[in-house]
Amino acid sequence: MASPTAKSLVLDLLGTLRPGSAIPIAALVEIAELFGIRGNALRVAVARLTASGRIVRDERARYRLGARALAVGRRVRSWRDLANRTRPWRGDWVGVWGTSAGRARHRHRVRALRLLGFAPLQPRLWVRPDNLTERVGAVRDDLRSLGLPADDLVAGLHELDAATDERARRLWNVAALRRGYRRSLADLDASSGRLPRLSTRDAMLESFLLGGRVIRELVLDPLLPDEICAGDERRVLVDRLRDYDRAGRLIWGALLERWDVPSLRAPVDARGDAAPIRIAG
Q: How far is CA 79 from the centre of its chain?
């Protein structure tokens, strides 16, 4: 598992704090050093993220996510509630028609759509099954908060012709999704057995990196209906990750208590320019 960059580490840490809590710069520096990131590099990343509005500094010189990153942070934290985010599917779809051009707009569009499990059916039309607990209007609001351009059209799609409906059902690589569930489940099981034998530092690093990788997988999961991809393995993975998350927070607890920071939730690995959930954007 690759180490995070200074910027992604800051966003990961702040994105997994309990709502309303913040962390001092000295604690960020100490945590960064665990990952081999120098204090100067961490401070530069904090300054740039603050200038961009992605994080904010409070009156006690402690940092939390800024408004620009809050919507993605909420989506990251939603992995625990995946079981309550879907409803039985009636065969309808939600579609998004990308009306605006421009590279930056398209990048924001793709990130928002992938966070909510959409896939491209045509060059400008993205779809997903209408099986989320949120109805079309709420999905539209979520997409807007995540960066979907305001002039993109979001609407329900009903009674697709049989050929188009069949093509839409094949947009997601179901075999790869299921392999990912099984791989992550095996990795969590193996790490759970290994953590008690590791040094505190190594256990902190492993729980952070592996927990973040699996959360990223779940945050990006399209939450397909059982008619397209059976969700049993995903539900087992979520349950297992909850247990791993509790173990990880216990491992991190002593360091965070020293800095008067409420216990972290398991982090999300936000590295990579191509990562759709990357808060740094």
A: 8
CA 153 to chain centre: 24
Quote helix, strand, coil % in the chain, to nearest 5: 55, 10, 35
Mean pLDDT, rounded, for 27-34: 95
Q: Which of 107, 215, 128 is nearest to 171 (CA)?
A: 128
CA distances from 217 to 34, 61, 147, 165, 213 (A): 24, 33, 20, 26, 6
Q: What pLDDT digit, counting tens, does each position of 75-120 carry?
A: 777 888 898 999 999 999 999 999 877 888 889 899 999 999 999 9
The per-residue b/e assignment along 51-89, b for 16 or more CB within 10 angstroms, e otherwise, is: eeebbbbeeeebbbbbebbbbbbebbbebeebeeebeeb
As a whole-number percent, the residues of the chain with pLDDT over 70 amount to 93
Sheet holding 153-157, edge to edge: 119-122, 125-129, 93-97, 153-157
Contact 7, 63 (CB under 8 A): no
Q: Are 15 and 30 in contact (CB under 8 A)?
A: no
pLDDT tens for residues 122-133? 999 999 999 999
275, 216 contact by CB (below 8 A): yes
**Tokens standing for residue 97:** 């028609």
Where exactly are the structural domains of the chain?
Answer: 93-157, 172-251
Contact partners, residue 17, CB within 8 Å, separation at least 6? 23, 64, 261, 262, 264, 265
